[in-house]
Structure formats: structure tokens, C-alpha cells
Amino acid sequence: MKSNQSYAREVSPEFANLIKQRREELGYTIKRVALAVHSSDGYISRIENHKRRNPNVGIVYGLSQELEIDLEYLLKVAFPKE
């Protein structure tokens, strides 16, 4: 899967909550995170508010790096087994 592609499945609401919670724990602004992952603050806001439910693969990787969240854990939260 190329990094400019989006996930076919929707991410869980817990994914959105985790991103927002971790960003706030680190004291980062949405703008700071957006710049770090080469995105817009509106895009990050939509992820955090679960309005962007199939985020770009590269953005998810960037969020894991910037927010210091293990990528494997982040993906498990994003796509829990049903």
C-alpha cells in the first residue's frame, strides 16, 4: 500500500480518542502535529473528532512517530478485531 493511500476500513472511535489524548498529554497543538506529519490542522482535527474515518496511511505513520505511539499498538486500536 502506498503512503498516499487511505485505509479501506474505517478506523475506530478509540483511535480518534487516542490521537487527541496523546497530543494533549504531550502539550502539542493541532498545528504542531499537522506540520510534523505534513498535513493540515483541519485534517488532524477531523481525525481527532472521528470525522475523517479512513486516514491516509502516511499520516497514520507520522502520527505514531510524532506522538510517540508504537505503530503496531496504534493499528490495533484503529482496527480492533471484531
From TrEMBL:
One Gene Ontology MF term: DNA binding
Alphabetical list of PROSITE patterns matching this protein: HTH_CROC1 (PS50943)
HTH cro/C1-type domain location: 19-74
Pfam families found in the cross-reference section: HTH_3
InterPro entries, per database record: Cro/C1-type_HTH (IPR001387), Lambda_DNA-bd_dom_sf (IPR010982)
Protein name: Helix-turn-helix domain-containing protein
Native organism: Gracilibacillus ureilyticus
Taxonomic placement: Bacteria, Bacillati, Bacillota, Bacilli, Bacillales
